[in-house]
Design a protein that fits this description.
Layout lengths: L4 H7 L6 E2 L4 H11 L3 E6 L2 E7 H9 L9 H4 L1 E2 L4 E2 L4 H11 L3 E5 L5 E6 H14 E2 L3 H14 L5 H4 L6 E3 L4 H11 L3 E5 L5 E6 H9 L10 H4 L1 E2 L4 E2 L4 H11 L3 E5 L5 E6 H14 L20 H5 L5 E2 L25 E7 L5 E7 L6 H13 L5 E8 L5 E4 L2 H14 L3 E11 L2 H9 L7 H4 L7 H21 L3 H14 L4 H13 L3 H17 L6 H21 L3 H10 L3 H27 L3 H22 L5 H13 L3 H14 L4 H13 L3 H14 L4 H31 L6
Parallel strand pairs: 1-2, 5-6, 9-10, 13-14, 17-21
Antiparallel strand pairs: 2-3, 3-4, 6-7, 8-16, 10-11, 11-12, 14-15, 17-18, 19-20, 19-21
Helix pairs in contact: 2-10, 3-9, 3-10, 12-13, 19-20, 19-21, 20-21, 21-22, 21-23, 22-23, 23-24, 23-25, 24-26, 25-26, 26-27, 27-28, 27-29, 28-29, 29-30, 30-31
Pfam families: CBS, PB1, TPR_8
InterPro entries: CBS_dom (IPR000644), CBS_dom_sf (IPR046342), Diverse_CBS-Domain (IPR051257), PB1-like (IPR053793), PB1_dom (IPR000270), TPR-like_helical_dom_sf (IPR011990), TPR_rpt (IPR019734)
Keywords: CBS domain, TPR repeat
């Protein structure tokens, strides 16, 4: 099921409706405090406008008094709105068409729900692309096809079309605001006197300066407020790498430099995403079949529609690090950067441990983080842990909630930390029941990966962590197309812990990619057996969702083995709408592939091969009708009937045409095919009736008229013969005289 704007608003921060009487400086203070870029304005609870950081920057550029201007005087009135049930894909398309970055969301009664940010939507999709997959062949082949397409275009394709918003370090913040307003951007690159990149100033820097009373814009030079030594890219970097660089650190802008580190342009995440993903999505709306091999081929549908709707299991992408200039002066080939933050701490044995967490959090992230810390630390689930980290001033700060965890991540982003130094202390013991309940209550099925550990006991924790590390490594290898290496990683994970259901599920998907279908079925079955054994331990919602994933994979394997009816029964048992959609798509892909192959065989006069392929397509068609009410296609039966005619099996052809007419009583090919088949079977009266029915619906042509005339002649001859035979019989009968 596609992700809607209501789903996005559940996990996003924001504000309620602002009053028109708020001053511009109060709005700026709120933006800084809540770390947001836009808010909606209401009057008596009714949405009337939108205000953004760009509006504040525009006021600063005009030297306006922010304390005497009120929201109602500068907001954008009557903004475009979207309903809460609109998809994220629709929201991004609307933003791109309208040239705006925020859209208010309303319910069915027009009541305000919140405001969505285009960049947050894009980052959400990239996070899913990197870390969240249903471990099936379709998901991985789709990912591979999309990322391969993004590795080709480079930033130079954008740089050639855009003008650089560049100032020098000695220019003022006011000048920066004027340039942002003129270029309709929210950032400028800052260079030294030689034109070499020195920093970047964003609209958020403007607001922090104004709100913090650090000076007037016209008196503040950029050197004092800019972010120094920013992450940058070269024109030869791919759009995919640029997106990953920005997403990994939460950046919205990225300077592009030449070999001398001089600024070529400053690109935004919207520009890069528009070229890397949105254009591709708009040009790829039709469903195509997936015949995957070990390298992966093109999947179906658009990037956004797929990744915004993906159910997930946890995994990690390969890390990426920003590139630097080589001694020769030219940027080297880019290395992977990370979408994760590393927490480093000492376990019970005073050995250092590292835990990775995604930089973009969701509800329950702290519970998952705490569970992983607990395992690596060596604590049992019957204890409470105190987890602290050192902030930018060297103070220990406690993490005990999602809010604390989010603040820690935000500090890491602001300070560009690669590693967070943490302190873990075991302080209290609880009962197993209360400890487990508090954790499992907030975990979704994507957390099954973390719930697979056995009851703790020193060495068991380290073993389980090693197994999960191997699983994550395998996921990364699969995402990068290295299927055989991924299978080896899954093998190692299973050797470490044979009761890890996720390893069997992932290995099954990998084996499907290389067409080891029978082995894939065995792995999926083993994963389900493990799930059945853990029904009393694992969160039931997570367990059911994981089982749906396995069943979706089993159905996919059965489809490849042409055991369509069995796959249909599996489909009927899947509860998750996302997994059902995936399985139906697998059926439809197979149906399309069978039809296409059958048509090619038919054109090549390989009619018996075509009959086999059409038979497979008809079986799929019948299964989909039975399981989901998918309308049957009479044309498949007609096509097979034509093949039967070509090999002189006219009786089978007539049967297919009759079946086709049961599906569609007015199908032209079926009506005409039945009439012709009956003619060849010398059932002339039935053929004549069939032709009469055909002519009531469709015009006559020379060929059909010729066949019809022949049939009428044969019927007439048959009738004449019957009369003649009857006369002969009557002559031989001695009738009594009257």
């Amino acid at each position: 099921m596609a992700r809607t704007l209501v789903d996005v608003l559940k996990t996003s921060s924001g504000s309620g409706l602002l009053e028109e009487g708020m001053s511009a400086i109060e709005v700026a203070e709120m933006f800084v405090e809540k770390r947001i870029d836009a808010a909606c304005v209401g009057s008596k609870g009714v949405l009337v406008g939108v205000v953004s950081v760009r509006d504040i920057v525009k006021l600063v550029s005009r030297r306006a008094d922010l304390r005497s201007l009120y929201v109602g005087e500068f907001m954008t009135r009557n903004p475009v709105v979207l309903p809460g049930e609109a998809t994220t894909e629709e929201a991004i398309s609307a933003m791109r068409r309208g040239g705006f970055r925020h859209i208010p969301v309303v319910d069915g009664h027009g009541q305000y729900l919140g405001v969505v940010d285009a960049i947050e939507l894009i980052y959400d999709a990239i996070i899913k692309m990197q870390t969240q997959f249903i471990p099936t062949r379709r998901a991985f082949t789709f990912f591979r096809s999309k990322t391969e397409g993004l590795r080709v275009p480079t930033l130079s394709s954008i740089a050639d079309k855009s003008e650089a918003a560049v100032l020098t370090t000695d220019e003022t913040l006011l000048t920066a605001c004027e340039l942002m307003t003129e270029t309709r951007s929210t950032a400028v690159a800052v260079t030294d006197s030689a034109g070499v990149l020195a920093g970047i100033v964003t609209s958020r820097d403007v607001l922090k300066t104004i709100v913090g009373n650090f000076g007037r814009a016209q008196d503040t030079i950029l050197f004092k407020v800019m972010s120094k030594d920013p992450v940058y890219a070269s024109g030869s970097d791919t759009l995919l790498l640029a997106l990953q660089k920005m997403q990994a650190r939460g950046f919205r802008h990225l300077p592009v430099i030449d070999t001398g580190k001089r600024v070529v342009t400053l690109v935004s995440v919207l520009e890069v995403a528009g070229n890397a993903i949105l254009d591709d999505d708009e040009s790829n709306q039709s469903t195509t079949s997936i015949q995957a091999d070990s390298q992966g081929e093109s999947g179906s549908g658009g990037f956004w529609s797929y990744f915004f709707s993906s159910a997930s299991l946890n995994g990690e992408s390969m890390e990426r690090k920003e590139s630097v200039l080589s001694p020769g002066g030219s940027p080297p080939a880019p290395k992977p950067i990370s979408a994760f933050l590393v927490f480093k701490f000492q376990d019970k044995n005073r050995e250092f441990r590292r835990v990775k967490v995604p930089m973009r959090l969701e509800r329950g992230s702290y519970d998952k983080f705490q569970l992983e810390i607990r395992r690596r630390y060596g604590a049992s689930r019957s204890s409470i842990l105190k987890i602290k980290y050192f902030d930018d001033e060297g103070d220990e700060v406690r993490i005990s909630s999602d809010e604390d965890f989010e603040e820690c991540i935000e500090s890491a982003l602001e300070n560009q930390w690669k590693t967070v130094k943490a302190v873990v202390e075991e302080v209290q013991t609880l009962t197993d029941t209360s400890s487990r309940a508090s954790i499992s209550a907030s975990l979704s099925y994507s957390s099954l990966l973390d719930l697979e550990a056995k009851d703790d006991g020193g060495s068991g924790i380290a073993t389980e962590c090693s197994a999960q590390d191997k699983i994550r490594e395998a996921m990364g290898l699969l995402q990068n197309g290295n299927v055989k290496a991924a299978i080896r990683c899954y093998d190692e994970a299973i050797l470490i812990d044979p009761s890890t259901a996720n390893a069997y599920c992932g290995r099954a998907a990998a084996k499907l990619i290389v067409h080891e279908t029978e082995q894939a079925l065995e792995d999926y079955d083993r994963a389900l057996e493990i799930c059945a054994e853990r029904q009393e331990i694992v969160d039931q919602s997570a367990l059911e969702s994981f089982m749906d994933v396995c069943n979706s994979g089993i159905a996919e394997a059965l489809i490849e083995l042409r055991r369509y009816e069995e796959a249909g029964k599996i489909l009927s048992s899947i509860r998750s709408s996302q997994c059902r959609d995936e399985t139906v798509s697998a059926f439809l892909d197979e149906l399309s592939a069978c039809k296409d192959s059958a048509a090619k065989a038919q054109l090549s006069d390989a009619c018996m091969e075509a009959v086999d392929l059409y038979t497979s397509a008809i079986r799929i068609d019948s299964t989909l009708e039975k399981e989901i009410g998918h309308p049957r296609q009479a044309k498949l039966l007609c096509a097979r009937g034509q093949c039967y005619v070509a090999v002189d099996d006219v009786e089978m052809a007539a049967e297919d045409y009759n079946l086709a007419l049961q599906v569609d009583p007015e199908n032209r090919d079926a009506l005409l095919g039945r009439a012709e088949a009956l003619r060849k079977l010398e059932k002339y009266k039935d053929s004549k009736d069939a032709f009469v029915t055909y002519f009531k619906l469709f015009p006559k042509d020379e060929k059909t008229i010729k066949s019809f005339e022949e049939v009428k002649k044969r019927v007439l001859e048959a009738d004449s013969k019957k009369i003649s035979d009857l006369g002969s019989v009557l002559k031989e009968i001695n009738l009594p005289k009257i």
